[in-house]
Design a protein that fits this description.
Layout: E1 9-10, H1 27-39, E2 51-52, E3 64-65, E4 75-80, E5 83-88, E6 93-97
Antiparallel strand pairs: 1-2, 3-4, 4-5, 5-6
C-alpha cells in the first residue's frame, strides 16, 4: 500500500502513484488486498480524467469486490491506468494498492 497526502493526484498518465491514507485498513487486510488484486485478472481501464484521492472514480470504471473477507465489504477495487485503486462504498478513491 502506498500512503500519501489526502487529495494527492494519482498519476493519470505519468504512472507515478501518490495514494491516500489507508490508516483505517488493518495491516493484515492490506496484505490480503495486495495478494487478492494481483492474483485476480480484471479488465484494464484507461481514463483521461485526473484521478484524485478522496474524489469519485469515473462512473465508466468498473469496480470489483473483495470476496472472502467480510472486513473489506466497505471497499471495492478497480484497475485503472495500469494501477489498482482502492475505492470506498461511495465510489471515492481511497488510495492505491501496490505490491
Amino acid at each position: 500500500m502506498v500512503g500519501g497526502p489526502i487529495g494527492a493526484v494519482i498519476g493519470a498518465g505519468a504512472g507515478a502513484v501518490a495514494g491516500g491514507a489507508l490508516g483505517s485498513v488493518a495491516q493484515d487486510d492490506r496484505v490480503y488486498m495486495q495478494k487478492y488484486v494481483y492474483d485476480k485478472k480484471v479488465e484494464p481501464v484507461t481514463v483521461k480524467e485526473q484521478l484524485v484521492t478522496g474524489k469519485p472514480l469515473p462512473r465508466t470504471v468498473k469496480t470489483y469486490t473483495f470476496e472472502g473477507n467480510t472486513k473489506l465489504s466497505a471497499y471495492r477495487y478497480a484497475y485503472v491506468n495500469n494501477q489498482y485503486l482502492l475505492v470506498d462504498k461511495d465510489g471515492n478513491i481511497v488510495g492505491s494498492i501496490e505490491r
